[in-house]
């Protein structure tokens, strides 16, 4: 019965084992993974939009080629993650439906505008840098398909972060106007990137259970701190200042202290009222509708193929 299956499940989790799609799992485990993995997939797909706006405006063929590759990668990350979510008993259509109906979340960070070319470099450096921090521990997630999807995603994220940092180094070696453009982008993205790690642990309803089930390996606040500690020296190399007067090394803690994050702004964005939420969702809905003929043609072709083999 369920009692011994739960015992077996708990023993597997406690032994840091992997749960696979055919294994028995508590309904709540399935539900929270579906929630997180589908929202992660939505984040990747919506995440293509802010910097995708700059593909036709890239300053050189080299930058255009790199940006194209990165945006294409994000689309692929979305597909891996939708496939991982489907192993939990949902369909792509259901997940896309939830996103378009405003019922599913995606990462807050993609609801901010990309005002200049420097935003593309700052997104690579800070947003993908934060995504790496958040995704590396998920490679050790107890749910097999999710952990395995993360391995390749993390490899590609490193390229995303490095290309962003390199393009900022180029700009910082340029004119004063280019240097100002970078500093302006850092000023706009720094705080939303810190919030991207999720609410403080004390206000994080999913964390305790997620930690117990080996889904979340490091807490929101610990990952945020790790990101800040790793990024401060990089900002020095770049020659930009991080827009937080309270940011300073605390020898006693062995970490950087930092200022207060505006959680009202964060929850405002998460609940759909950020600077670009409506535009991002409308763009996704339009792309989905414009792409309906491709899906229909592919399905019709697949049916014909099937008929052929059945004869
Ligand atoms: N944006 C939007 N919603 C967020 C959020 C954010 N940055 N951070 C937290 N939330 C939501 C949670 O989804 C949850 O709402 P829900 O219960 O309706 O899903 C609520 O706020 C409370 O947060 P919790 O901390 O309790 O939720 P979690 O334990 O799930 O932790 C998380 C949040 C750290 C984002 C976790 O879900 C996670 O690690 N998700 C997978 C990784 C991910 O999505 N990373 C960001 C993707 S960006 C990206 O990778 C693209 C890159 O290539 C640029």
TrEMBL record:
Domain of life, source organism: Bacteria
GO cellular component: a single term: cytosol
GO molecular function: phenylacetyl-CoA 1,2-epoxidase activity
One example of a Gene Ontology biological process annotation: phenylacetate catabolic process
Record Pfam families: PaaA_PaaC
Entry-linked PANTHER family: 1,2-PHENYLACETYL-COA EPOXIDASE, SUBUNIT A, PHENYLACETIC ACID DEGRADATION PROTEIN PAA
Protein name: 1,2-phenylacetyl-CoA epoxidase subunit A
Species in which this protein is naturally found: Ramlibacter rhizophilus
């Amino acid at each position: 019965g369920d009692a011994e299956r739960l015992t077996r499940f708990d023993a597997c989790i406690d032994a840091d084992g992997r749960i696979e799609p055919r294994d028995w799992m508590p309904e709540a485990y399935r539900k929270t993974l579906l929630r997180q993995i589908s929202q992660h997939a939505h984040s990747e797909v919506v995440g293509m939009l802010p910097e995708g706006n700059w593909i036709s405006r890239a300053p050189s063929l080299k930058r255009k080629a790199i940006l194209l590759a990165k945006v294409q990668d994000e689309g692929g990350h979305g597909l891996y993650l939708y496939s991982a979510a489907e192993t939990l008993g949902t369909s792509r259509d259901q997940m896309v439906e939830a996103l378009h109906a405003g019922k599913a979340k995606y990462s807050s960070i993609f609801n901010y505008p990309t005002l200049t070319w420097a935003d593309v470099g700052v997104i690579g450096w800070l947003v993908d840098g934060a995504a790496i921090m958040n995704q590396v521990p998920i490679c050790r997630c107890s749910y097999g398909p999710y952990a395995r999807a993360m391995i390749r995603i993390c490899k590609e994220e490193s390229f995303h972060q490095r290309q962003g940092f390199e393009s900022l180094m180029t700009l910082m070696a340029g004119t004063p106007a280019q240097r100002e453009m970078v500093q302006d982008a850092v000023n706009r993205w720094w705080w939303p990137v810190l919030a991207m790690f999720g609410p403080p642990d004390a206000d994080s309803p999913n964390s305790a259970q997620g930690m117990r089930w080996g889904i979340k390996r490091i807490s929101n606040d610990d990952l945020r701190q790790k990101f800040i500690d790793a990024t401060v020296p990089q900002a020095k190399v770049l020659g930009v200042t991080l827009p937080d007067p309270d940011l300073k090394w605390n020898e006693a803690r062995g970490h950087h202290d930092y200022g207060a994050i505006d959680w009202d702004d964060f929850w405002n964005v998460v609940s759909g009222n950020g600077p670009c939420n409506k535009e991002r969702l409308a763009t996704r809905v339009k792309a989905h509708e414009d792409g309906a003929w491709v899906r229909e043609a592919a399905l019709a072709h697949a049916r014909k193929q099937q008929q052929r083999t059945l004869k």
